């Protein structure tokens, strides 16, 4: 058993302990499910009219510590469905699970520790009384039963547990830092984006400052792509059902699509991805090998009907923007095109100080029904990706079952300043879409040749990428991304004219600047500018006005010597051009 499996077993065992304590404290509460998740576990309960909050955590944790003294081991018992239902009187949630599980199993497994037992398929630790010690309840939230908003809202209690006190404390400190950096909190404080009840959940609205940052990162991706020969294309936001039936997306994603019915009775869908549309741009005229490769890029909004309970700030939304690109090429061109995209990914993420890890995401041979195409085709395609990664002399991890349903991919993982790992860019090799749409070119021999398709997203979803970026920098973006790069702070009203003259000079040189015209004290203006995460505060008083200089204070608190205006402009422009992250 590997370390991760041991940790999962520890956390699942603690979910049992949480449920045992809750049932003792609130005997009428109905248990549902308690799985492990990344960094912890949760358990969902129906408390009826009782409201549970974090203020109840101390007594729950105390009962958990009392109970664990009697938990020597986890004993497995097997019950018939009829026996199992008797263990949960008046609990429709467990009855639903029992009915579901009993379709394949004649007997159901229960695990017992102390006086508590629960329906469970297993995965526990050997010595609970000694190992279930270093835990902490973290938060409480509402969650629909089985994630369906048509079902009843339950109470979800989140917790975590580690093998040692040191690991637990380190994680709790990380959580506190993450709360300070929460992109939902900072997005509001820095006036970058927000959500409106009238517009709807999962549909972000971007302010001028937030839109500026979006455009800057998107322009950066486009510049890198343009250097590699990409061309911009544009597609509509809806499509007939038939396009997604042909691509295979309708069968796979029908329940996640926003659907529209025309007055004439035709069924359309809001696009959840762009690749099927782009195949039609390639296919609209005959192609020769001389036309290959065709490289299309488009930043466009996509839509998915995510369930309300699964939405989370910018990390999971219903409307998201993809910096999408597709390459249509011959087999002989695949390696060069992959390497070109890999270079773009490396250049882009280095500008933010991210170190990338590589993951080869391949299909699960034991679950071929989840994928388009046949086993042999998948193996050949995956060998191509492995060869490319090997030649780059880059270490990588292999992830079986993480492929897209139409092809394997190279995923890039970035570690942020809190040591959290995020899957960011992806390059996918697709043999199936060209087959389904009969995409081909006339090759050098004058013969029809099936082409291949490469899917490439550098940021993926701009919304999700910016949620990562906001938290990585705690809202203090690098200078080139900071919405207000310089704040002019006149010491008194007498210097307002000079402050505006300096601001005009900076603006003419492409520097984003604002003048603080308030009658407040200089110290308050500086403090407010720091809260706004402005990079430079340029203070001007009588001395600066007379000598045509500025006294500059950096966001970090570092004070610079008074600078001549031309020198200050040069300093700022150089730092912007270099895309420095400090």
UniProtKB/TrEMBL annotation:
Residue span(s) of domain Aminoacyl-transfer RNA synthetases class-II family profile: 182-478
Positions of Zn(2+) binding: 275, 326, 455
An example molecular function term from Gene Ontology annotations: ATP binding
Subcellular location: Cytoplasm
A Pfam family recorded for this sequence: tRNA_SAD
Annotated keywords: Aminoacyl-tRNA synthetase, ATP-binding, Cytoplasm, Ligase, Metal-binding, Nucleotide-binding, Protein biosynthesis, RNA-binding, tRNA-binding, Zinc
SMART domains: tRNA_SAD
GO biological process, one term: threonyl-tRNA aminoacylation
Catalysed reactions, semicolon-separated: tRNA(Thr) + L-threonine + ATP = L-threonyl-tRNA(Thr) + AMP + diphosphate + H(+)
CDD domains cross-referenced by the UniProt entry: ThrRS_anticodon, ThrRS_core
Obligatory cofactor(s): Zn(2+)
Family per similarity comment: Belongs to the class-II aminoacyl-tRNA synthetase family.
Protein name as it appears in the record: Threonine--tRNA ligase
Lineage, broadest ranks: Bacteria, Candidatus Roizmaniibacteriota
